[in-house]
Amino acid sequence: MIVPAENHDMKKPNVLVFSGYGLNCEEETKVAFEMAGAKADIVHINDLIAKPSILKNYQIASIPGGFAYGDDTGAGKAYGNRVKQHLSKELEAFLSRDTLMIAICNGFQVATSAGILPGALIANDSARYICRWVDLEVKSSSPWLKGISRLSVPIAHGEGKYFADKKTLESLKKNGALALRYTKGEISKHFDLPANPNGALMDIAGVTARDGRVLGLMPHPERGVRFTQLPHWTYLKEQYVRAGKKLPADGPGIQIFKNAVKYFR
Amino acid sequence: MITRVTVRAKREDARADGYLRTLKNRFPKVKLKGVAVTEAYTIDAKLLPKELEKIAKGLANPIIEEYATKGVLAPETFSVAVEIGFLPGVTDNVGHTVREMIEDTTGRKFKDAAAVYTSRFLFLTGSTATDEAARMAREFYNPLIQRASVLSYSEFKKGVPIIVPKVELHSTVKTDEVNLEVDDDELMRIGKEGIVNKDNTRQGPLALSLRAMHIIRDYFRTIGRDPTDVELEALAQTWSEHCKHTIFADPLDEIEEGIYRRYIKGATQKIRKDKGKKDFCVSVFTDNSGGIAFDDKYLVTHKVETHNSPSALDPFGGAITDIVGVNRDCLGFGLGAKPIANVYGFCVADPTDETPYFRDKEKTQPLLSNRRILEGIVQGINAGGNQSGIPTPLGFVAVDPSFRSKPLVYGGTVGLIPRKSHGRKLHEKEARAGDYVVMIGGKVGLDGIHGATFSSEALAKGSPATAVQIGDPITQKKFSDAIVREARDAGLFNSITDNGAGGLSSSVGEMAKDSGGFVVDLEKVPLKYPGLSPWQIWISESQERMTLSVPKSKWNALKKIFDRHGVDAWRIGEFTKSGKAIVRWRGTKVMDMDMKFLHDGRPIEEQKSQPVLRTFAEPLPEERPKDLGKTLVEMLARPSIGSISFISQQYDHEVLAMAVTKPLQGRGRVNADSGVIQPLPHSNRGVVLAHGYAPWYSNIDTYAMAAASIDAAIRNAVAAGASLDHLAILDNFCWSSSNEPGRLYELKRAAEACYDIAVAYGTPYISGKDSMFNDFRGYTESDVQIHIAALPTLLISAIGVIPDVRKAVTLDAKQPGDLVYLIGDTNDELGASEYFTMLSERTSTYEVDRDDRHTMSNIGSNVPRVDTTKNMKTYKALEKAIQKGLVASAISVGRGGLAVALAKTAIAGKLGINADLTKLLGTAGTDDSRLFSESQGRVLVSVNSKLKREFEKSCQGSTLTLVGEVMKRNSLEVDLSEKRLNIPLKMLSAAYQKPFKNW
């Protein structure tokens, strides 16, 4: 079991990445945070339930993507239930400090089920799982999204359609919490794909809470941190090479993780 | 106490809309207005009313759903309600999750007998007749594993009875001795039909020959007692074709060592010796997967499996079990490799063909339709791969009518494992005497008993619980995490293997070869429900289980890890060095045999083959199309060539963040025959995966089929950037009627090709598998007895390592003005091509010849041949050019020939191509053979025109033809000797996307 030392090096924030019961993106999420300059630990939820006090040593919490409990009874429900039953108080205490949290894909579904973020994620309009890249328009003052106005990253989900009642949507809008919206950008144009992949209301791909410190989103920024992860990088490569330019190393998703690290500097 | 909670969507429900869409498509004449869905959770557990309310709340997301704890939530008006639920004993994953949710919510653990059963209500409006609704319900359930009840509105209003599909076994549980001192006829019957029960029914087929039965009888004579049913069943498993691969292992004609040792293993031995210091094989043929070097610190592993018979019966269950099963072959490599990629291949019959077939003469047991089979398989691999968090970068669909009865469902898993951990070589393992036998994962039920051999009669009369298995990816994911992340590197076990075919009898028996014996106490094996006989526990194929060999001193530490991960683990015995295989049940020995007899006692069969020669006429000149452009468009729309994007985009290929080249390439999203992944985030080193298959060529010659499959796999890999210096392959044979001398001859010929081609290219086999009886015997609608035998099929899977993924190449044309080259010769080789097959379908119907082979009459005889000397030059030249960065796109020329390769390059790049095919090298003399010949060894590439000289120089020594250039104009224009084709790109694209457009 991982017990991090108390963190005095604020240049390298400690990140807790949830795992267990079928979450499955924890390793690449850890990698993305570490590429950005953080120190990340993968922690099994049962270990956290056994010793919730370790949360005190972390500045960032991340619920990564996956298929917790196989999406049985609805994506995120069973894991969200486990979080709610065993970690409600502790997470409240964690979030009331000046901390950050990111909930990606299945993590977003878990976070809405557990009441950490508003709204719900329901079955895609196509009623089918879909894996592709999307373009996002960013309008937010969230520390996670500082300096980002457009972002292209992949999605992979069966239940990713954002849903909330009118009242919730209006208050989200008013509070500037509608952080990420699907838009027809570079990649959807390149591949001639619809901007909104799942029928999400108001094209919502991600929302924030607690002044933007908590970000939940269906797309996977951790899967787009290298140039060679882009779906059209071999096409771009030919353009770079013929123009005599060097190939970039980074992908667009890394900025989100860099922003989180910067927040603590 | 039985309670039922029902949950439904408050507003929109995409799944209900999906049902409606499907039904409207399938039953256009029925006036169906709407479908509503309600989920039901039937809870068999003691609960307080307060608890029930809390549980129900947890099952419904208040924003979008509502629940009821009494009655069944239903729309105000509807015509018919259909409830679909599982039959007793069928794995109910959602039920398991709800059980865990209830434990989480109430804070108490339930007793074993407590369970949750799920079912789903569909409410149909607009269609009044219940018999019509029953027909519709058939679209959504499989009677082998599920039940459906149809209720009219008034019946529903009277109250819906709660069905609890609990398994109730009434048989008395004990072990019987089997008298083998009987005449040969009875011995044969026991071997074929199984051990006789008290009521004169039989336990199910053992598939033991008379010779095997004699050997067993004689062995027990020498120890002076009758065998028990446990011993006979265990021998049947251990000696089975499935476990021992007897057809590949036993002498065939003059090949005394068997074709596996001579041609497959023999090829690898020769290649490794030839490579000397450059040998990259580390662990081949001895383990659950094959392992090769990745870099100084890591190995990559690969294994491909099939699950054909189960997929024919329950496509979803068969396919999910296939993929999660082969994941365990990865976890079972060495001390546990981490699965990093899945691959798939589905050989099926045309999904639009709805010709019915029946298992029985009475026609009460229809085969599932082609469409249902493919849909189910696609969903099964989806659930298994996506839920496990393993990316699926590569796969294919191949169509032929011979796959009507038994689809071939290939599933493979690539793994990553450090070479060493704490000084231990992780690819080595050894169960030691004194270690505990530990079983982890799920509990044991009747699942899959005699799974491989059960007959259609058994299906009609037998218990539904045994028929099919359904995988549970989450249970497996939990132990996968525990093993790969913690237990392996903590050094807490000495050996690990999968519980697959043959269950514990196989896994424990195999592992105990290292230590030299074992003792297992069957009452310690946890059961899903009471009432299993000892022999059933010993051979059950219940899923999601692995067996570990654990030193006594490490047990507590290991158990702690598993507990923290929510993984169940049980000590069920001990490995020994006694030389004895001992199984006890409640203190009594029910099996006590020599290890040597168990493993090496089986009879060796002398197999004889008989040459067959198949020749076919070619389509007559007047049967050849005049408009070859139109023909190309038709070819692109055929399911073996067209897009399978509906599969590629529902399989997560981005998880683990390793994908480099994707399954759909270019703006026009064309399916690739290769995939490149980057396993480590901080190293540019990559793994190239590719497949090769050509079952259609078996209509003419299996040597050519196997050679083309190997050549295609290697070609696909090289076109993506792989190097022949670090490229390994896997063989998966799917044969039919394998006891017939003609088929054995064809098998021998294919195996010869395996040796010849692999040795020539220096690509060693590292793992393989075979499935030898893909046959169906049944009836047509007009009562004709038929036998459908799947075309002999060899899937070759290639795995290569490359130093830099940034050199990887995709198949899409990149820039107007780029030059288009063909490397390799185009010969007059249209035999069994997609083109001749298509023409032949128009002029003839499928015929069944004396060998029960279904084949078309005019498919020609000039099947493509592989010239390894020439092709080697092509591949070496291409490899060099790609490493120098001279190639903008590359596509291997395969099914459909050069025309299809040109079209795919253009569709993918959304750019036109202007090509001149009049000056091709090779023997192809007519326009149609230039376009559609499937000559092997060819790659079509595009090159920046500024690099023309450098590229041509780099390719010196290979047969290179400049065929044209990429252009902005959106059309494919091709000069032929007699005419010029000019086809708009839009038309090509639409045709390519057509075959599975609305799936």
Features:
A: 265 residues, Rossmann fold, nine-stranded mixed beta sheet, two-stranded antiparallel ribbon, 8 helices, 30% helix, B: 999 residues, alpha+beta, Phosphoribosyl-aminoimidazole Synthetase, Chain A, domain 2, seven-stranded mixed beta sheet
The dominant shape of chain A is globular
The main pleated sheet of chain B reads as: 7 strands, mixed
CATH superfamily descriptor of chain A: Class I glutamine amidotransferase (GATase) domain
Question: So, CATH architecture of the domain at 277-600 in chain B?
Answer: Alpha-Beta Complex
Strand content of chain A: 15-25%
Residue runs with pLDDT of under 50 for 5 or more positions of chain B: 452-465
Low-pLDDT segments, ≥5 res of chain A: none
| CATH-level-4 superfamily name of the domain at 277-600 in chain B | PurM-like C-terminal domain
Number of strands of chain A: 11
Q: What spatial order of strands do you see in the largest sheet of chain B? A: 17-19-16-20-18-21-22
Domain count of chain A: the total is 1
Structural class of chain B: alpha+beta
- Contiguous helical run count of chain B: 31
* CATH architect. name of chain A: 3-Layer(aba) Sandwich
Shape of chain B: globular
What's the pLDDT, averaged over the residues of chain A?
95
The portion of residues assigned to helices of chain A is: 25-40%
Determine the CATH topology of the domain at 277-600 in chain B. Phosphoribosyl-aminoimidazole Synthetase, Chain A, domain 2
Instruction: State the name of the first-level CATH class of chain A.
Output: Alpha Beta
Distance between the termini of chain A: 28 Å
Number of helices of chain A: 8
